[in-house]
Amino acid sequence: TDVAGNTSNTGSVNLAVDLTNPTAGTVAVTDTYGNSTTDAIVRSGTPAFTVTGASDSDTYTVPGVAAVASVQLQVASGSSQTTGFANTGSAVTSATGGVYTLAPTSLSDGTYTIRALVTDLPGNQATTSGIDVFVDTTPPTAGTLAIVESDGTTGDGVVSTATPAFTVSGAADTGYTGAGIYSVQLQDRKSTRLNSSHANISY
């Protein structure tokens, strides 16, 4: 309205009010390393994580369709943390088959709590529950291999049995709570593994 009382109208705009946080879903580490694929012990500083079940339950379709806008990994040092999280890696904005795949910025050896921050279009946010992940990129200390000679001349490496015994001393793995040696395997000079029918080993 101007001073003289003349009026005119702007064009209209569509507005959707969304005050509801999205559903965060569940975060999981893709653990394809070591002796177990479910122990969350990984040998990569940038393991892959997936988020499933993230969604936005609002039903508006104008000015845009309600949806998850982004998913961001967050990390805190130590296990079972509930505070002290910081963003790590890049946020992703699209899912494949309902699954968001993410990777952190390279993590050093140690124990971490990982969670995902889910943001919808208007900026409402929710976080998944955290999971513990153990990063171990350091090879173990191999120790010393010795043959158990109980016949002939000790120390000459010549034995009179096809299944000699060996010992490994000093093998160790450290770096996080629960770290340890999983297995010790004999190999010949061609790096061919010898099974238990060919040699006995203890450590």
List the defining traits of the structure above:
203 residues, 29% strand
Strand content: 25-35%
Mean pLDDT: 87
| Class of secondary structure makeup | mainly beta
Proportion of residues in helical segments:
under 10%
Parts with pLDDT < 50 across at least 5 consecutive residues: 191-201
Radius of gyration (CA) equals: 29 Å
Main β-sheet, in a few words? Answer: 6 strands, mixed
Order of helices and strands: EEEEEEEEEEEE
Report how far the terminal alpha carbons are from each other: 91 Å
Number of strands: 12
Helical run tally? 0
Shape, principal axes of CA atoms:
rod-shaped
Describe this structure in words.
- The chain has no helices and twelve strands.
- The strands form three sheets. Strands 2, 4, 5, 7, 8 and 9 form a six-stranded mixed sheet that branches.
- Residues 191-201 have low confidence and may be disordered.
- By secondary structure, the protein is an all-beta fold.
- The radius of gyration is 29 Å and the shape is rod-shaped.
